[in-house]
Amino acid sequence: MKVLLVDDEKHVRDAIRLLVNWKHYGIDTILEASDGEAATALVSKEHPEIIMTDMMMPIMNGVKLLEWLHRHAPDAKTIVISGHDDFSLLRHTVKYGGTDYILKPIDPDQLNEALDKAIQTWLKDEEMRHANRELNIEVNQFKPIYWDKLLSALIAEPGTYEPVADQLERELRLSRSVATCRVAILSLDTMEASIKNKFSQNIDLLLFSLINICNEFLVPHKRGFAFRHLHNPNEIVLFLWSAPSQAEELLATINDGIRTALHARVDFGIGSSHNFPSQLKLSYQEARDALRQRNLTTKETWIHTNWLPSKGSQSTLTFHQFEEQIHLALRSGNVEQIQDIVQVWMDAIKSCDVITPAQLEHWWGEYRVMMRRWTQQLIPGSREEDIQSLLLEDNAASIITLDEKGLLSLSLWQQELTRSLIQVSKLHLESQHKDNNVIFEIASFLEKHYHEDISLADIASRFYLSREYISRKFKQEFTVNLSDYLGQIRMSKAKVLLCNPNLRISQVAEMVGYQDEKYFSKVFKKMSGMTPGEYRKTANSI
């Protein structure tokens, strides 16, 4: 903490130095000035927290100094030490923020008490200033989120405008007199690979950077405002309310700024000028359509206006046309076959005259539907989270990738499709191997536990498989259903036991898993063509 002593008499300054235990108050720097003008220079340079000043001094007196401090150093605390018991001077001290007025000759106790009071007041004020700074930081951190929410809602609900109109005019410079507006969209769904790769681990930082660049061109000149669309997180929306006829040129200038800052350009879609705020949604939809229906195989402009059909034939290609070939490649488990069919699909896409983001999205949707069906068929019992990873859900937004010229690059999509299909095929082969193993494990279990009361539900619970799945796979492997297979084991064991004349038929039935002798006899006759008693006589007579 610093203190400044202002008095034209050096012996007074020396006396003040001696009368105070400065270290006790946490003061490590004591500055001195012989008049008000010298004091203002020191205050501007050193920013002392406490100022002790005389009132009657040459060049600039204490009255003028207090007025200057009130304007230029309002946080500093001032103690007046004067030889004049003048009410007008006291009133001036109070008016311009002085904390105390001490008369000469200086009383040590009064001086220390005044200094302590000034320091405590400064500390209390500083605590309040710190709290306000923290609050301002928090407010500034949440402001972008606030505007994102408010302006996103304005697109869908024009009625939300009136309650915040004054705030929009005050903070975003959106005048109440604005009658029309154009909406532009910058979408991260299609963007140059160089930007996506640079910010692949922090998309939020990319959005923040792009919004700031846009607003550097919009806000100072009252042209508009850019924000993140909360209902479509990969979109940056721009409201352009000034000079709508020049909006395309403005977006081109913003794109030049993005190029300078991030070394890449972006595509903008822009809607027509419509009534504000009632028709914002219409202009927004036009901007979206302009982006979604642009041809990605050519690059004539970065600014796309209301969509008109692209030159050339619209593609009628569908992913379903290749479904059977891809399915066969999956079942084969052959990596080369999978790579070849993906290449055939990509070659078909490359032959299209027109490829739009909307078309890519449609193909991607077809792929996901088919992949979900194939996964459920080829990998029975697969969990939903496993299916999601195989569908490349997390990578969907990065599949539509542009090269450095802004043209469609299909190489990443081809890599991801190939990797995903190979993974499904691999899991299918593992599933087949695992299925065969588990079915034989079930058969082995039946061989060891045939004498127990076993049901299909018990087997399903024990091996964590569905009853339907076990029944189907068991019959595929052993050509009989599980209950008949278990019955064959029991009858085979019963025949051996019936050869022992000392065992009653009821005992034999119980030993092979039947509690009811009559039911055992019925099943035995059905499977061997004779009753247990007849079989015993025949076996013992041999």
UniProtKB/TrEMBL annotation:
Signal peptide range in chain numbering: none
GO MF, one example: sequence-specific DNA binding
Single GO biological process annotation from the record: phosphorelay signal transduction system
PROSITE patterns reported for this sequence: HTH_ARAC_FAMILY_1 (PS00041), HTH_ARAC_FAMILY_2 (PS01124), RESPONSE_REGULATORY (PS50110)
Database matches in PANTHER family: ARAC-FAMILY TRANSCRIPTIONAL REGULATOR, REGULATORY PROTEIN POCR
Keywords annotated in UniProt: DNA-binding, Phosphoprotein, Transcription, Transcription regulation
Residue ranges occupied by any HTH araC/xylS-type domain in the UniProt entry: 440-538
Entry superkingdom: Bacteria
Domain Response regulatory span(s) in chain numbering: 2-119
Modified residues (4-aspartylphosphate): 54
UniProt organism field: Paenibacillus oryzisoli
Keyword Transcription regulation carried by entry: yes
Name of this protein: DNA-binding response regulator
